[in-house]
Amino acid sequence: MERPKVLVTRRWPAEVEQALQERFDVALNASDRPLGQAELARAMDEYDVLCPTVSDRIDAAVIGEGTRVRLIANYGVGFDHIDVGAAKAKGIAVTNTPGVLTDATADIALTLLLMAARRAGEGERELRDGRWSGWRPTHMVGSALRDKVLGLVGMGRIAIATARRAKHGFGMRIAYYGRREIDPAVATELEAEFFPSLHTLLRTADFVSLHVPGGAATANLIDAKAIAEMKPGSYLINTARGLIVDHEALADALDRGQLAGAGLDVYPHEPEVPEALLGLENVVLLPHLGSANAETRIAMGMKALANVEAFVNGNPLPDRIA
Ligand code: DGY
Q1: Which of 39, 69, 76, 283 could form a disulfide with 35 if both were Cys (CB 3.0 to 4.6 A apart)?
Q2: CB of 274 closer than 6 A to ligand 1?
Q3: Amino acid 279: pLDDT
Q4: Model confidence over 169-206: pLDDT tens digits?
Q5: What whole-number distance in Å separates Cα of residue 58 and Cα of residue 229?
Q6: How far apart are the CA of 270 and the centre of ligand 1, in A?
Q7: What CA–CA distance (Å, rounded) separates 229 from 258?
Q8: Contact between residue 191 and residue 171 where contact means Cβ atoms under 8 Å apart
Q9: Biggest alpha carbon distance in the chain?
Q10: Distance (Å) from CA 2 to ligand 1 centroid
Q11: Which residues are bridge partners to 193 per DSSP?
Q12: What is the Å distance from ligand 1's center to 254 Cα?
């Protein structure tokens, strides 16, 4: 394919944008304004390759008849914002960027876990508001991590990286629920206990961290019933996808003190944040920062670029989903 037309829907790191410009006839989004559904649908007819991110909804209506785009090269590992079935039905390939954001996302899971356990957001708000009256033995006492059970829901790459940090860095005990047991060597290293039942894990863990992919299969997995099953005084951490959690039920459990705290990086309808959470002190709220360090964001872009390049050269796509 001679210089294919590529549309990048948001600003990407400058290094990656330059590399794209050197190779392809690329339309960048200098203003970083999110494209509307009609603009995305039009793009399907005007470009050979679409490079969206999690902030774009590439649904069946956008894909439409898929007259021109042949590759959707997503900037990001999660792809629940893309109707992969509709793309496949139109013969459009879809790729993502696995592997390169594992450490960054595990770092954010630990950031949230520590912030929630040690009441860091609440403490910073108190200090900045001029409400801090000084050190005292009973002031803003949180939870220790050593010997506490970290229950991971889903045990892929990011969950394992999170477990390593929690076990080797903070002395936590590791438990997990997943479709299957992990590699025995990793299980031994982490002394990880496998729970075939989500509900048993929720009743056991002091901290629950979510690591399942988004999409229909996991929507509302942590619903009101699941939250009610969590250990009194436990914590919920979510760096996966917002729609996995019933946020009304979560806010209620935090408000009643059934849960001691929560740390969230993702929300059901970003950039909206569920109103019920905003007034609560015991929840840490981050704006989807999981992969947000410079090295990772460049690596994600270069991985997307490698997929576009393979497609243009007629080579197998390194990170093909569909
Ligand atoms: C992803 O890649 O899916 C993240 O949510 C964005 O960092």
Answers
A1: 39
A2: no
A3: 97
A4: 999 999 999 999 999 999 999 999 999 999 999 999 99
A5: 35
A6: 13
A7: 10
A8: no
A9: 70
A10: 31
A11: 175
A12: 26
